[in-house]
Design brief:
Elements lengths: L11 H16 L34 H4 L7 H9 L1 H4 L13 H14 L2
Helix pairs in contact: 1-5, 3-5
């Protein structure tokens, strides 16, 4: 049984808890803290407000380098839903998260933990 994220205006602590659980699927490829290395995917520390493909020391795909994206909640929401729809030809092997509440919880967690 999947836990449900709170509705908009719900409990922020519950949303972060849900986001932390959902982040387990991201953790194999991404770190969130500044002192951690890149993995298969780039470290996400400082992601919000940063241009896509701008993290130092990571080899991004040509598709993402040419995408001219800036990471904010709206862009990240579309990306987490289906990365290949946002930037065709990107190297991220991830099918996406269909549930909007799950994406919102995941984004809230990434935003909070990657500062």
């Amino acid at each position: 049984v999947q836990a449900q994220a709170p509705a908009a205006g719900g409990d922020p602590a519950a949303e972060l808890k849900r986001g932390r659980l959902l982040y387990i699927q991201c953790r194999a490829c991404h770190e969130l803290k500044a002192d951690q290395p890149h993995k298969v995917g780039p470290n996400l520390h400082g992601l919000m407000g940063r241009k896509a493909a701008a993290a130092d020391g990571f080899a991004f795909s040509a598709a993402l380098k040419g995408a001219n994206l800036t990471w904010d909640r709206a862009t990240l929401d579309k990306w987490i839903e289906k990365p290949s729809a946002v930037v065709p030809g990107n190297a991220m092997a991830f099918a996406g998260v269909a549930n909007p509440k799950d994406r919102a919880a995941l984004i809230a967690y990434i935003e909070a933990e990657s500062k």
